[in-house]
Amino acid sequence: MSYEIEKTEGEWRAQLSPQEYHVLREAGTERPFVGEYTDTKTVGVYSCRACGSELFSSETKFESHCGWPSYYAPLAEDRVQYIEDTTMGMRRVEVRCARCGGHLGHVFEGEGYETPTDQRYCINSISLTLRPAE
Predict the structure, then answer these.
(1) N or C: which end of the chain has fewer CB within 10 A?
(2) What is the domain class of 9-132 according to CATH?
(3) Whole-model pTM?
(4) Largest Cα span, the chain
(5) Could you state, in order of their start, the residue ranges of all structural domains in the chain?
(6) C-alpha to C-alpha distance for 56 and 69, rounded to whole angstroms
(7) pLDDT for 27-72, tens place per residue?
(8) 90 vs 54: CA distance, rounded Å
(9) Rounded CA separation 20/3 (Å)
(10) Cβ contact 103:23 at 8 Å
(11) 99 Cβ contact list (under 8 Å, min separation 6)
(12) Are 82 and 94 in contact (CB under 8 A)?
């Protein structure tokens, strides 16, 4: 796949910390309940830590108690990319940044959360940067 922002693995390694690289470029997962934004209530916009693309709004963030920040929708559908993920013996939908291909997390449906979309975008904090509203 091609993305608007493409860098060599060496360039990504130079830009990102080892933990950021593992999640964003190798589709890793940070441990639950340790992420910087898991319990954040700050109003603002969450951007891709790798490329700065604005992805999620605090307006769609909700408490799912799953250990990672959860949102019920991205800012716009063209901001994210969906990839079928059959690792771990189940079918999941991986969510990536559409601008740079960075792994963000997964999206789940039909879990019974009282949200407008019945979706939970379960996103790694380390994949994001919060820009507080002014």
Answers:
(1) C
(2) mainly beta
(3) 0.94
(4) 44
(5) 9-132
(6) 11
(7) 999 999 999 999 999 999 999 999 999 999 999 999 999 999 999 9
(8) 29
(9) 19
(10) yes
(11) 3, 4, 5, 48, 51, 53, 79
(12) yes
